[in-house]
Design a protein that fits this description.
There is one protein chain. The chain is α/β, with parallel strands linked by helices. Helices cover 36% and strands 25% of the residues. It has one domain: 3-Layer(aba) Sandwich (Rossmann fold), CATH 3.40.50. The protein is built from seven helices and seven strands. Strands 3-2-1-4-5-7-6 form a seven-stranded mixed β-sheet, sandwiched between helices. Helix 1 packs across helix 4 and helix 5 runs parallel beside helix 7. The N and C termini lie far apart (49 Å).
């Protein structure tokens, strides 16, 4: 069977309203990710959510007074259409890693996006170089990683490419991309889930 594009899968899920389940399922992880990131941001700050889906994280950030502007980017047309109907934010339908933002940001958030890329490490270098302001902060979460054995069968089950990296490889990718103060930790673990792997780091000011 031919490999499907992740954006096709997510468009199908959005049509079936599965995006709402994704929002509920990822809520605890994203809450922890934002708690890690927000103390590191200036006031006010601008933000972008890569792989924003129906825009739910953008809407969370919009509610914060310190966030002056937030942008959502996703490759699924149906997801972006949902985001535009559910909120007033700025959303872009875009293929990544090819697409480039018109402006840079103080904060980049990404949940369950990077491993769908053929070369996530290259995207992380691009984020550091072209997406973030000096002093900007990135936080990204992935549930598909080597230490989460339950996730190893996802690519075959969905017929979608996923890049499988270990915790150490994700951390090294952040360092190689140029980030400083790099951290990595698991959040939102339960008895049945080893946790979302979260990586974070800062782009130094010159």
């Amino acid at each position: 069977m031919a490999i499907r594009s992740a954006t096709d899968v997510f468009s199908e899920w959005a049509t079936k309203n599965k995006d709402e389940g994704m929002e509920r399922g990822h809520a605890a992880s994203v809450k922890a990710m934002l708690e890690l990131a927000l103390p590191n941001l200036p006031t006010p700050y601008t933000a972008v959510d890569l792989g924003c889906g129906n825009g739910w994280v953008c809407r969370l950030l919009e509610q914060r007074e310190e966030c002056s502007h937030v942008v959502g980017v996703d490759g699924s047309e149906v997801m972006i259409e949902k985001a535009q109907t559910l909120g007033q934010g700025e959303f872009h339908l875009a293929r990544l890693p090819e697409w480039r933002p018109e402006a840079t940001f103080d904060f980049l958030h990404s949940m369950e996006f990077l491993y769908y890329l053929e070369d996530p490490a290259a995207m992380m270098k691009m984020i550091h170089a072209e997406w973030l302001n000096e002093g900007g902060f990135m936080v990204a979460g992935v549930d598909h990683y080597l230490e989460n054995e339950d996730s190893h069968g996802w690519p075959e089950a969905l017929d979608v490419h996923m890049t499988l990296l270990s915790e150490a490889q994700w951390k090294q990718a952040m360092i190689d991309a140029g980030f400083s103060d790099v951290g990595i930790q698991r959040v939102a673990a339960t008895e049945d889930f080893v946790g979302t792997l979260v990586m974070f780091g800062k782009k130094d000011s010159n």
